[in-house]
């Protein structure tokens, strides 16, 4: 079996476990007044797990493509696959997760988006700065105002 099918099989297992938790475990601890709401805290995980299982099954049972030598990963030449960028992005994600609460959502998300595009090779700063700041503002507005979930926008010293 090819690598993409092995990864799809692993993703099916992860999504099934996540779906089990979303469908059967998360709703058991709901307060009685929340059980009458049309959208529960487990609604988004249910949708994510269902879509994840469907997408992974689509990859798993897709007809086999004719592979060329260019599409296969040569494990002996792993250093030619921009491995440094992938490691830097993973490290940036860990730093983002650690800085989210103390630094605040807007600053940490804007910096994460800016530095992530920088690591991937973008160098047009006049585009990177407004896009990263506006994306962070839009996501914060949607989560804070539309969904009603409080997220600290700034660090505590700035009144966040």
From TrEMBL:
<feature type="transmembrane region" description="Helical">
    <location>
        <begin position="83"/>
        <end position="113"/>
    </location>
</feature>
<dbReference type="Pfam" id="PF07331">
    <property type="entry name" value="TctB"/>
</dbReference>
<protein>
    <submittedName>
        <fullName>Tripartite tricarboxylate transporter TctB family protein</fullName>
    </submittedName>
</protein>
<feature type="transmembrane region" description="Helical">
    <location>
        <begin position="47"/>
        <end position="63"/>
    </location>
</feature>
<keyword id="KW-1133">Transmembrane helix</keyword>
<feature type="transmembrane region" description="Helical">
    <location>
        <begin position="6"/>
        <end position="26"/>
    </location>
</feature>
<feature type="domain" description="DUF1468">
    <location>
        <begin position="6"/>
        <end position="151"/>
    </location>
</feature>
<keyword id="KW-0812">Transmembrane</keyword>
<keyword id="KW-0472">Membrane</keyword>
<feature type="transmembrane region" description="Helical">
    <location>
        <begin position="125"/>
        <end position="143"/>
    </location>
</feature>
<dbReference type="InterPro" id="IPR009936">
    <property type="entry name" value="DUF1468"/>
</dbReference>
């Amino acid at each position: 079996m090819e690598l993409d099918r092995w990864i799809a099989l692993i993703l099916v297992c992860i999504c099934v476990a996540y779906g089990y938790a979303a469908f059967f475990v998360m709703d058991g601890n709901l307060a009685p007044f929340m059980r009458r709401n049309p959208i529960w805290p487990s609604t988004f995980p249910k949708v994510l797990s269902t879509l994840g299982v469907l997408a992974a099954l689509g990859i798993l049972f897709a007809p086999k493509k004719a592979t060329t030598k260019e599409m296969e990963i040569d494990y002996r030449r792993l250093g030619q696959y921009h491995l440094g960028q992938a490691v830097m992005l993973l490290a940036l994600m860990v730093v983002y997760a650690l800085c989210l609460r103390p630094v605040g959502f807007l600053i940490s998300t804007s910096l994460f988006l800016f530095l992530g595009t920088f690591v991937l090779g973008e160098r047009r700063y006049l585009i990177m700065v407004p896009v990263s700041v506006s994306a962070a503002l839009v996501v914060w507005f949607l989560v804070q105002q539309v969904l009603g979930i409080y997220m600290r926008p700034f660090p505590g010293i700035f009144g966040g």
